[in-house]
Amino acid sequence: MAMMRFRVPNPSEFDPRFWQTAFVAGLDALPVASVNFLHDDELVLETSSRDSCKLSLPWPTRDFGPIVLSTASLRTNQPTYHLLLELARGTLHRIRTDAFFWDRAGVRIPNSHTELIDQAADVFVQAILEKDNPKLSDALAQQSIDLAISAARPLARAYVTQNLHARIRNNEKLQTLFGVRLPSNANWKDLAVPLQPACNTIGIDLSIGSLAANQSLLSTPSLTMDQLRWAKSQNLRVVAGPLVSPTDIHVIRNSLSHPSFENLLNAILEKARNLISQCQGLVQLWDACTGLNNCEATGLDDAQSLKLACSIINLIHTVDPKTPIIFSVDLPAAENMRHGPHAINPVIFAESLIRAHDRDIAGIGLELNLNYWPMGTLPMDLPAISDLIDHWSIQNRSLLIRLTTPLSPNSSSTPAGDPSADQVVSHWRYPSNSMQSSADESDDDTAPEISPSLFANTDQNQCLSYAGTTPPSGLEILQLLLAKQNVDAILWNQCWEDPKSPFKHSGLFGNDLSPRSLVECMIRLRSQYLP
Length: 531
What we know:
Helix 14 packs parallel to helix 15 (517-529). The radius of gyration is 23 Å and the shape is globular. The protein is built from 15 helices and 16 strands. The protein folds into two domains: 2-165, no CATH class; 172-425 and 447-529, Glycosidases (TIM Barrel, Alpha-Beta Barrel). It has helices spanning 17-21, 83-104, 111-129, 134-167, 188-195, 223-233, 246-255, 261-279, 295-298, 302-319, 346-356, 382-391, 460-467, 474-483, 517-529; strands at residues 2-7, 23-25, 31-32, 34-39, 42-47, 54-61, 65-70, 81-82, 177-181, 201-204, 237-240, 285-287, 325-330, 361-369, 398-404, 487-492. An eight-stranded parallel β-barrel has the order 9-10-11-12-13-14-15-16, surrounded by four helices. Strands 4-5-1-8 form a four-stranded mixed β-sheet. It is of the alpha/beta class.
């Protein structure tokens, strides 16, 4: 058993869940199972791996609130490390490395980034020199972290704006599929109509779970069929699915008198075959499954998960051979790997499916639920999100991103005692930072900016102000995804504040069904960049 210890300043001021989100990862960047606990003012992680590894955890920053920061690679079973010093060292290294590779790729690095990252390095050196004065050293290390994260903002803006301008050169529009997943409720059309100008694509929940236990086909007048016909009448492309999710697996398993895997597989395929046949011709992209890489959620082992995914892909290709197929992966940052040795590496899961169905799979879907824990992905800054997307460049397959992130700044609208509300990491308790946000800093002096008309006559400026003190806003993330060449489809995965969804505050429409400002911004994004 290996152990890592980190001295933490004022641990009692943090929500205890911060320490449970901490994880260690090896050179392959995959989380390793660990036992985390506080002992006085030390964070202790016990793990079976004796190799050098990095510690990662969400940590408060001036610009973004809590976002995931990582140390450099550290040896286990050593004297106690100073957490803030190691986080500052790792953050400086990460931001500098991103700047180096983006510069090599042709991105013009803004002077504002260079000045801030140099300041961060100078302050970090001071923090090292004051190591024998822990209070002063911690304050300097935190300042170095804040400066490095501030430097990441103009760096990310330069990357996004320059890539977008390059992609729409000669006034050509992007061919990215861009839209929203429609809700499965009776007033869906009241939400779909105002969203239509923002979308060239619609996601429709078409899962075997939409069929009752004794039902083999969707009834002709049904919500799903109405949505499919409406999308066709509006010339909107349809991403249908995922056909099978962990929830569907549990529902089917509970309906079986003998729930063996073979019986479960046959029951799932029978329902899926009927759905595919009934909706053939109304769908432009099938999403075969999601979350099968999460064995803890499905109750299947890795071999069963792969067999089920392969069987669904085979079925779609057999019944509807002309329509492209993708499969989706939940927890794309491999968050499930920290729960134990039986978790499936999501990249290996995806590569295995592609090897088995090379000609049948058009791309990979990523369920990117940012700023949620434990059912989502911990909050990240924009360069880290970009690195995660690049990590999924597997065998030149295109990506479909199903995105959610909180759009409201606080949890005041959430009923008291609602445990799912606590999943929003930036709403957790952590020490306040009295330093002023640098969100309103002037744009860089070498990189062209996205057209100011995008923000004119909207209240999105409120979103940008909010983005200065919390993880990147929905608009910033959408712009980043549009700039990525390997992202061919983007769906906002939460149309309204669905009370059944674990991802609170991410709906494009609030509890009163009034549109949030991101709707207008999505309309302007489509007008500027998309057909």
